[in-house]
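Late entry, written up from scratch paper. The run itself happened at the end of the previous shift, but nothing got recorded in the book at the time, so transcribing now.
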Amino acid sequence: MSYSFLDFLGLLGAVGLFLYGMKVMSEGLQKAAGDRLRNILSAMTRNRFTGTLTGFFITALIQSSSASTVMVVSFVNAGLMSLAQSMAVIMGANVGTTFTAWIISLFGFKVDMSAFVLPIIGLAIPLLFTKKSRNKSIGEFLIGFAFLFMGLDMISRYVPDLQSNPEMFEFLTRYSSMGMGSVLIFLTVGIVVTMVIQSSAATFAITLIMCSKGWIDFDLSCALVLGSNIGTTITPLLASMSGNVAAKRAAMGHLLFNLLGVIWVVCLFYPFVHLNVWLTEAIGSGDPTALSGYVNHIEATQPEIYNHLFDNSLPAGHEVLAKIAAMQTSVSIGLSVFHTVFNLINLSIMIWLTGLYVKIVERLVPAKHVEDEEFQLKFISGGLMNASELNITQAEKEIAVFAERVERMIGMAQKLLHTPVESEDFAQLYSRLQKYEDISDRMEIEIAHYLKRCSEGRLSNEGKTKIASMLRMVSEIESIADCCMGAGKILERKTQAHVQFNDEIYANIDTMFAHVEDAMKNMLLLLSDVEHAREATIIASYNKERELNNLRNQLRSGNIDNINNRHYEYQAGIYYMDLVSDLEKTGDYIINVVDTVKNQHRTATA
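Output as recorded:
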């Protein structure tokens, strides 16, 4: 087998075509479906059982668990699907991939999606030239779909051709009689081969060839198939490397599902293989363990026939050929039974442990930084896709995270008010408040740049309106952070001027802080689901803003009387009123966000 540098470049180009097809398909789907896609995905994955069925049918349809799992990882990266929902779909995809093995076993062929590539492009091109935006988007989706499978087909063409060169694996025969040691060796070979050729179906075909030549028996064939289940997880893992933490966790969940399944099968390997041999015989497909023994018997007793067995030099009706063909069918069906039973049992056990899986994956793939202290965009990243409608959803979630971070600054400012001036705690808390203000500035810039990049893509009118409203929200939220920092600066100036507040001032400012924090909590509630913002929450926000304004007016009016009555010094009254004005201004910025959600961002009222 010769593999040139040109072949390697062809492989890189094929991977590029695959990724580009996925990008175009995702963008087209987003623009065609818009916000409805989230509702569709929500309906498809509303519980672990519907999610599993979704994964099964998608994988059975496109006959590639790698492709379907990469799409799931992409949706998690976009925030359209939770980690728990993705686990159910991934579990279903693992069962769906057995559908391909059955097609190969029963009919001897796999649906060649590449045969439909050019007809699909032919149907898509006219749609690109129509005036209706939705039709153009459907055309883009079809072309992306065609490129995706063209890329997959070319990847299999340019990877090293192990399937046509099974002699590469002949050396493994010397490791075939080591008991459980052989099982582990062939399990590892199955992992490596599937990682290289990116196809568990091709590994299945290689396994059948090795068994047919008598190099390995049925037990070790099952070990190879087990290994292919782990090897096929490499594609989503590679794809998730450019994604955010959620995408990495989804890909790791896929690996964990297969890895834990393989571990329990290895512990019960021989009894489990015997169960599948019995099932294969029970459905009338013969004994799958007989082939390797029969071929080895031919090699020992009739070496001349064995030598001509695999070079097509024996007559077509030769009895040995006919017998081996029947046994090959039995092995093929036996491996399909093994693969299916393994995945079904694995699914039936693991589906009840979805919550545990999520916790384990979150421990295995922790956030890179302590969220409370470090600058970190949680949902926005370079991403796996650049589908503008999906990116809007990512930005929505990022804005909610931004607002949650800014809310902590309100508590810091209030705590600073009550921290003794001369203490080290005051300096540390003020420094922490400054750090948060710097982070908020950077988050505003990152989110705004991200939204600007989204707006450069072709968006629906609704999408353009959303981006404009989100830019306003980001600006207002950053202004809230500025107000919190402003309160800190007022307190620092008060400290430098050696001004003291009395209990009355402290009580009034605490009341203002309480109103601001209540208003902020209402705003966060709206941002957690901007498209279905509750009318009651919006009304509560307006009521809280009126209370803030009334309290500000009341405190201003009372301030002059308090100074005249010598409740506190005139200079204390200046810093006191500065704080009151700053907090009231914070409430104004909060209500501006609420206004934006109410008037321009909300698509439904709950």
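Residues 461-496 form the longest helix (36 residues).
(Scratch paper discarded after transcription.)
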